[in-house]
Design brief:
Elements: E1 15-21, H1 28-37, E2 43-49, H2 55-64, E3 70-75, H3 81-91, E4 96-99, H4 111-119, E5 125-129, H5 141-158, E6 170-173, H6 174-177, H7 189-200, E7 204-208, H8 224-239
Parallel strand pairs: 1-2, 1-4, 2-3, 5-7
Antiparallel strand pairs: 4-6, 5-6
Helix pairs in contact: 5-8, 7-8
């Protein structure tokens, strides 16, 4: 979490935060409160990806409250995180776009740290990193190993030197996203968009963030098959646009 004081003199027009949601009835109100509490966001786009646990009912209640900065989109069926992010990008209006998971693993109090390299004129894309010294909950060793392996292979293919390609916090200037077509529907969105950012040869920064990972009993959704898909995606987008 950051105490960074931002220089808004170079600020682009508006920060849109995209929140893909799937079965997060216990966290959706809290994550919205935390994002709004930063007072840095001009638009929040919530994309519910076919939730079946009551999340959609909560979102409809929130929508009825009439928050002008909030856009809610409902997918009729579960299509995956990448599909939800793609829908969110289509609805985003800000010159900066940030992806925020709904599960409370990532803390919006890190927004100033993520924004600083762009507001300082040093970056076009900013990746958070769970491995650069920020506080984090101690959890699964093998998840850590797989994340580092996928990041290493991604770096080989992209010639970037990231420490955390799979991180959920990625912040983009709008003009970078305008040149990218996201094709992945699931969690393999992460290596795909990393590869396509690298091909643009834009300025990429990494900053340390905090991380409060969940167990599967607490609702964690990514699994072994997602790792296999990510591996295929890394090599695929080395050669495919």
């Amino acid at each position: 979490m950051s105490n960074t004081t931002l220089d808004w003199s170079r600020a682009p027009k508006g920060l849109s935060v995209i929140i893909p949601v799937y079965n997060e009835r216990d966290t959706i109100r809290e994550i919205l409160a935390r994002v709004e509490g930063t007072r840095l966001v001009t638009q929040i786009v919530v994309v519910d990806d076919g939730s079946a646990d009551g999340t959609r009912d909560i979102l409809k209640q929130i929508e009825a409250e009439g928050r002008a900065h909030l856009t809610i989109v409902l997918h009729e069926r579960n299509r995956g995180k990448g599909a939800a992010v793609r829908t969110g990008i289509e609805r985003a209006t800000g010159d900066l776009v940030l992806v925020q998971d709904a599960d409370l693993e990532y803390d919006p109090r890190d927004y100033p740290t993520l924004l600083e390299p762009i507001l300082d004129g040093r970056a076009d894309v900013v990746f958070g990193s769970r491995f650069l010294g920020g506080p984090h909950r101690v959890l699964f060793f093998w998840h850590y190993v797989v994340n580092r392996m996928l990041t290493f292979l991604s770096n080989i293919c992209t010639n970037l030197n990231l420490t955390d390609m799979e991180v959920g916090y990625k912040l983009f200037r709008r003009e970078v996203l305008n040149k990218i077509t996201i094709r992945s529907d699931r969690f393999n969105f992460e290596p795909e968009i990393t590869a396509k950012v690298a091909k643009q040869r834009v300025r990429v920064y990494e900053v340390p963030i905090s991380y409060a990972g969940r167990t599967y009993e607490e609702g964690k959704k990514i699994g072994a098959w997602d790792g296999i898909e990510a591996l295929w995606t890394i090599f695929k987008y080395r050669f495919v646009d």
